[in-house]
Write a structure and sequence with these properties.
Blueprint (H helix, E strand, L loop, with lengths): L2 H16 L11 E4 L2 E4 L5 E5 L8 E4 L4 E2 L10 E2 L9 E5 L8 E4 L3 E3 L7 E3 L7 E5 L8 E4 L4 E2 L10 E2 L9 E4 L8 E3 L14 H13 L2
Antiparallel strand pairs: 1-2, 3-4, 5-6, 7-8, 9-10, 11-12, 13-14, 15-16
The chain binds 2-acetamido-2-deoxy-beta-D-glucopyranose (2 copies).
One 2-acetamido-2-deoxy-beta-D-glucopyranose binds next to loops.
Membrane topology: Single-pass type I membrane protein
InterPro entries: TNFR/NGFR_Cys_rich_reg, TNFR_5, TNFRSF5, TNFRSF5_N
Keywords: Disulfide bond, Glycoprotein, Immunity, Membrane, Receptor, Repeat, Signal, Transmembrane, Transmembrane helix
Length: 216
């Protein structure tokens, strides 16, 4: 108990005597070890042995399938991540000695997170909504409501909102107004003037006639 302070004192005197200025911090590309500043290993290489009075830091390149992204003093390189096909993952970019492998999702799916640990199917835009932006391997579909004059009658990951049919340009009249889920229904004019409400498609009349005929 009594010897401890004395020892510390002696040790302190010893250090001060032998190394007048032991470094307490090193440059950004160096690290402190054994009271000495050693160069860090560059990205893509791991540490084999610290520098000494007479030798520089000894580094070795990472093996195939491994990487180290930054200047470091790591004894081991990191393993490239594996894009597991059983999780719907595939390689987007193969890793190098300095970069990790980047995974993405198979066709029709996208990553559930920034790190792409798993995949989920692209969302569909419901009727009344159109695809604003088609999904990619890393981002989901973006839908938008169909504005007036447009419609979507399908659930789809690709279909945009379609413009209503212009009956006028077909020489027909509008029979049913369009909605955001249905197209305009055009009918033949009965030559009673443009926009006549009497206009009815011939087919519909025949269909109705059939129904009437079959009615017991
Ligand atoms: C579609 O139109 C209906 C009726 O006007 C409206 O209630 C609904 O919010 C619209 N849907 C979208 C996606 O805009
Ligand atoms: C959607 O609308 C188009 C154009 O009016 C039509 O041809 C198609 O049959 C409709 N599909 C469904 C599923 O309603």
């Amino acid at each position: 108990m009594v010897r401890l302070p004395v020892q510390c004192l002696l040790w302190g005197c010893f250090l001060t005597a032998v190394r007048p200025e032991p470094p307490t911090s090193c440059r950004e590309d160096q690290y402190l070890t054994n009271s000495r500043c050693c160069n860090l290993c560059p990205p893509g290489q791991k540490l084999v042995s610290d520098c000494t009075e007479v030798t520089d830091t000894e580094c070795l390149p990472c093996s195939k399938g491994e990487f180290l992204a930054t200047s470091n003093r790591e004894k081991y390189c990191h393993q490239h991540r594996y894009c597991n096909p059983n999780l719907g993952l595939q390689i987007q970019r193969e890793g190098t000695s300095k970069t990790d492998t980047i995974c993405t999702c198979d066709e029709g799916q996208h990553c559930t997170s920034h790190t792409c640990e798993s995949c989920t199917p692209h969302s569909l835009c419901l009727p009344g909504f159109g695809v604003k932006q088609i999904a990619t391997g890393v981002s989901d579909t973006i839908c938008e409501p169909c504005s007036v004059g447009f419609f979507s009658n399908v659930s789809s990951a690709f279909e945009k909102c379609h413009p209503w049919t212009s009956c006028e340009s077909k020489g027909l009249v509008e029979q049913h107004a369009g909605t955001n889920k249905t197209d305009v229904v055009c009918g033949e004019s009965w030559r009673t003037g443009p926009g006549s409400r009497l206009g009815r498609p011939l087919k519909l009349n025949m269909f109705q006639a059939k129904l009437t005929f079959r009615d017991p």
